[in-house]
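Format notes (please read before filing issues)

Several people have asked whether sequences and structure tokens are stored in separate files. They are not. Every record keeps both together, in the order shown below: the sequence lines, then the token lines. Line labels are part of the format and must not be stripped during preprocessing.
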Amino acid sequence: MKKTLSFALAVVMLFSLTACGSSKKSFERSEYTLFDTVTVIKGYSDSRENFLGETDAVIAELTRLHRLFDIYNEYGGVANLCTVNSRAGEWVEVDAEIIEFLKWGREVADLTGGKVDITLGAVLKIWHEARENEVLPDEIALTKAKKHTGFDKLEIDEENRRVRLTDAAASIDAGALAKGWAVERAAEKAPSGTLINVGGNIRAVGAKPGGEAWKLGIQDPDGGVLTAVAVTDSSVVTSGDYQRYFEVGGVRYCHIIDPETLYPAAKWRGVSVVCASSALADALSTALFLMDRESGEALARECGAEALWIDADGAVYNTDGFEKTE
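Then the structure lines:
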């Protein structure tokens, strides 16, 4: 059995028609073509027409970044990550944002001890095919693919704004970081009082009118809402084994691959992270999903983030500063 569910990792719990102390009404808009998931933007304005105008820049920024970080499709006039992968072995002139993103990917790999690695594309490609066909990949193939990963195979020439994969069999996979990066960039274009949700990567830009916090639900892996958090001008991102997975012989294999074992992680059902930056929250939610709780708590503390874990038996743990709300 295969299941793909990219949305509803964390959901908006309460979204009243009007904000406290404000005559503005709530509106939302949805997009279905960005980052292989559902994008929902919510906010307050005097009219729907004004709301759409106020959030057009958010959609435009998400669209721009979707095209830059797409590893499956190329677009006219754009040298994106798909271009870099398809021309592995060659220098490729790219947008300055790609260079900035790749440098961020290297920083994240260092920060997480290699748990989150955008150069793991050769391995992830095998797992993607396995998930599509609902069969386990060949272990010898995985071991061979691992030899084509690592930041030593990625060269960045900032002065000439170009990058090169030195190994023709290497490839970049931005799946663990691209949405968070894009949401944080898009948040810079959003008016205060906006909630951006790209497949569960949620960024609150300011508070609701009147200063009310956004109340977001953390999903129970078995359905329903486990708990909720109240956030203002910060992000909530969840990684879970209940979104994209397939089953073989009654065993569930999720889409989050551990670079050490080359197999899907099985320590947790879900990990949610709350911190100021959506880019960092996205990186940490994946990293903590791959770590034991003690290591994860240490990393969260180092990054000024809060986290909540759900284990295989449904037990819930959280950092001291993770403030649940009703």
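For reference, the curators noted about this record: Confidence is low (pLDDT under 50) at residues 4-18. The CA atoms of residues 147 and 170 lie 9 Å apart.
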